[in-house]
């Protein structure tokens, strides 16, 4: 366990007491102050091995003090605390040289762990910092615990070129996160180029990504630069990566492995100088099992996985988002609106299948279509009570048999390939997809008793055990 002296600065006496107790129990010497002046005097005298400071101090903002600390003692780690809890707070902490950022309230065990890591790291590590950003241009909105985790990860990624895989439902803001990584990262002076794999015909994806030479195919009348070339020195955002055809996946994997590519019809390798950020709303591990996505490409792209929570998991952010969208609409010339507490509560309780995008669209409708200055609960009810969609032939019916359900699913599966056929090995992939829920259901019904489950399924007990092991099925044993 590393030891050292921790300098704590916070104008809240209760917080100072709690931090003193937690850090003292962990074996550290602790010095406490409620202002930035005393903290700066200690630092300038060479005292302390680590600083923990709140952002808002009675005499000086910690973000103004941080650059002076880093200039005088560049190896002194500084952990910043804040109750402001916005994306820009995390980014500012990173830009000004903070070792880490903790939104209040935070877990004391996590704080002690961060202190231990900071004091264990070799001195002189250093990292390049981004230029100061415009504090008013906040690309991400929300102060919920789920979003705080996102902000902290983003702040740590800003000064790296690590490949990021953003996973989230449609409408959660995957492209906004990708743009934030670019706009506040070290490639911010380069271009941000986005390409949606689902929106490009399968036979044109390679040309779109890597460009083509004149005469490379019918209709190629001149050389065309691909998205990799357009994103030179910047960020390439590959949206809906799960819809990329297998042949294009192979070429993309080669680029990620070798760091260079060739245009369609070209022979001269071109060095790829881009940061890759990919996004998907699909389960790529399931895609891999179905033979639709290369496992080796997944691991190349999934260097830093980042899951964006759906809006229903961050309902506390709805008020901030509503105010943000009302303000944006007003800046565009739409009437100023307010919303009462009952209406806001209804918005917080709604499930939002379309996530933040659905909420934004609704706020714009409320602003444009309703003359009332204050949006009330009946207005929100009217907007949320949309008619039920007509039943689709592709939707399951309550009385549908298992055979009919599988037949409908397989029909949709084959349709997804258009005129092409699925990858070879379909028989075993489908059987595996059926075996897992079947065996899981039998084990659940028998409370994890494999003897009873084997009898229920009509298979040998050793066969069932092998299936459980090979298919990695979790067995939970419970008593009645």
TrEMBL record:
Cited CDD domains: AAA (cd00009), REC_RcNtrC-like (cd19928)
Function according to Swiss-Prot or TrEMBL: Member of the two-component regulatory system NtrB/NtrC, which controls expression of the nitrogen-regulated (ntr) genes in response to nitrogen limitation. Phosphorylated NtrC binds directly to DNA and stimulates the formation of open promoter-sigma54-RNA polymerase complexes.
Pfam families: AAA_lid_14, HTH_8, Response_reg, Sigma54_activat
Biological classification of the source: Bacteria, Pseudomonadati, Pseudomonadota, Alphaproteobacteria, Hyphomicrobiales
Keywords, sorted A to Z: Activator, ATP-binding, Cytoplasm, DNA-binding, Nitrogen fixation, Nucleotide-binding, Phosphoprotein, Repressor, Transcription, Transcription regulation, Two-component regulatory system
Domain Response regulatory: 5-119
InterPro entries referenced in this protein's UniProt entry, alphabetically: AAA+_ATPase, AAA_lid_NorR, CheY-like_superfamily, Homeodomain-like_sf, HTH_Fis, P-loop_NTPase, Sig_transdc_resp-reg_receiver, Sigma_54_int
Protein name from the UniProt record: DNA-binding transcriptional regulator NtrC
Residue span(s) of domain Sigma-54 factor interaction: 140-368
């Amino acid at each position: 366990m590393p030891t050292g002296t921790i300098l704590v600065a916070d104008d809240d006496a209760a917080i100072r007491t709690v931090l003193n107790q937690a850090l003292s129990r962990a074996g550290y010497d602790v010095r406490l102050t409620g202002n930035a002046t005393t903290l700066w005097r200690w630092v300038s005298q060479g005292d302390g091995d680590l600083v923990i400071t709140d952002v808002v101090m009675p005499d000086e903002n910690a973000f103004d003090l941080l650059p002076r600390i880093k200039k005088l003692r560049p190896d002194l780690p500084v952990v910043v605390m804040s109750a402001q809890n916005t994306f820009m707070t995390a980014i500012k902490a990173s830009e000004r040289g903070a070792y880490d950022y903790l939104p209040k309230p935070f877990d004391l065990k996590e704080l002690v762990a961060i202190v231990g890591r900071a004091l264990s790291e070799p001195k002189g590590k250093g990292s390049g910092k981004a230029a100061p950003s415009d504090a008013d241009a906040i690309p991400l909105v929300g102060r919920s615990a789920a979003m705080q985790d996102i902000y902290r990860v983003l702040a740590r990624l800003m000064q790296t070129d690590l490949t990021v895989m953003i996973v989230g439902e449609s409408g959660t803001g995957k492209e906004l996160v990708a743009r934030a990584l670019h706009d506040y990262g070290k490639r911010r002076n380069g271009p941000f180029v986005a390409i949606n794999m689902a929106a490009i015909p399968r036979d044109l994806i390679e040309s779109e990504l890597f460009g083509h030479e004149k005469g490379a195919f019918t209709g190629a009348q001149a050389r065309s630069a691909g998205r990799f070339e357009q994103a030179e020195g910047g960020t390439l955002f590959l949206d809906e990566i799960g819809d990329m055809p297998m042949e294009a996946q192979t070429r993309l994997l080669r680029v990620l492995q070798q760091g260079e590519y060739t245009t369609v019809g070209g022979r001269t390798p071109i060095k790829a100088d881009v940061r890759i950020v990919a996004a998907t709303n699909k389960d790529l591990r399931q895609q891999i099992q179905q033979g639709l996505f290369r496992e080796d490409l997944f691991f190349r792209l999934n260097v830093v996985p980042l899951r964006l929570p759906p809006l229903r998991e961050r309902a506390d952010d709805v008020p901030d988002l509503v105010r943000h969208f009302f303000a944006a609409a007003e800046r565009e010339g739409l009437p100023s609106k307010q919303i009462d507490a009952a209406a806001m509560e209804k918005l917080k309780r709604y499930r939002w299948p379309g996530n933040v995008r659905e909420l934004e669209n609704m706020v714009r409708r409320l602003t444009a279509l309703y003359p009332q200055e204050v949006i009330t609960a009946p207005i929100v009810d009217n907007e949320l009570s949309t008619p039920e969609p007509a039943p689709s032939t592709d939707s399951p019916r309550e009385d549908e048999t298992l055979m009919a359900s599988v037949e409908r699913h397989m029909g949709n599966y084959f349709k997804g390939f258009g005129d092409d056929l699925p990858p070879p090995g379909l028989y075993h992939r489908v059987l595996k997809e059926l075996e897992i829920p079947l065996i899981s259901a039998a084990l659940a019904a028998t409370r994890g008793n494999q003897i009873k489950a084997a009898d229920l399924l009509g298979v040998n007990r050793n066969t069932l055990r092998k299936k459980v092991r090979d298919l990695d099925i979790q067995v939970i044993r419970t008593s009645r």
